[in-house]
Amino acid sequence: MTSKCLLAALGAVMLVAGCGTASNAVSAASAEEQALLPLSVKTAKGVHNFRVEVARTSEEQAQGLMYRTSLPDDGGMLFPFSPPRPASFWMKNTLIPLDMIFIRADGSIARIAEETVPQSLEGVSSGEPVAAVLEIAGGRSAALGIAEGDHVSWKGGPSLPE
């Protein structure tokens, strides 16, 4: 009888823990939604606004946009570097093509790697020290007329506080 009671108690604890986890998942999703950073790119065609995730830690930067199956047209991920440094990315475990926009310390675009190949192990390099890299859906740079020399800005940018 004691083992049945213990098993029932354990089941109740697991049920409560499961409910807490679901609640935490919803809270985490809400927090992520609220944590999106407004970012704008000024081009010859006008200003284009995005709401991006920020990969601040080395773990977040290593994960990047891996395993995502889609990205909103106005979405993306920003990888800030302080101090600026040469950057190189690969597409391992990244399932969608991306445009990688390499941003200098003054906010100007140094280079755009368009339509990077999903799951490729080939490095995509900045070619010079950069303060950040912006990844957006593949093809969006061309569609919006984003070009080298255009200007990217965001609150606290180009370098963000930790």
Task: Describe the protein in words.
The protein is of the alpha+beta class and 162 residues long. The protein has two domains: 1-34; 37-154, Protein of unknown function DUF192 (Jelly Rolls). The chain has three helices and seven strands. The protein has helices spanning 2-34, 58-63, 140-144, and strands at residues 37-43, 46-54, 77-89, 98-103, 109-113, 124-137, 151-154. It has a seven-stranded mixed beta sheet. β2, α2 (58-63) and β3 (77-89) form a beta-alpha-beta unit. The radius of gyration is 20 Å and the shape is globular. It starts with a helix and ends in an 8-residue tail after the last strand. Mean pLDDT is 82; it is low at 1-31.
Give the secondary structure arrangement, pairings included:
Blueprint: H1 2-34, E1 37-43, E2 46-54, H2 58-63, E3 77-89, E4 98-103, E5 109-113, E6 124-137, H3 140-144, E7 151-154
Parallel strand pairs: 2-3
Antiparallel strand pairs: 1-2, 1-7, 3-6, 4-5, 4-6
What are the key terms here?
single chain, alpha+beta, Jelly Rolls, 36% strand, disordered N terminus
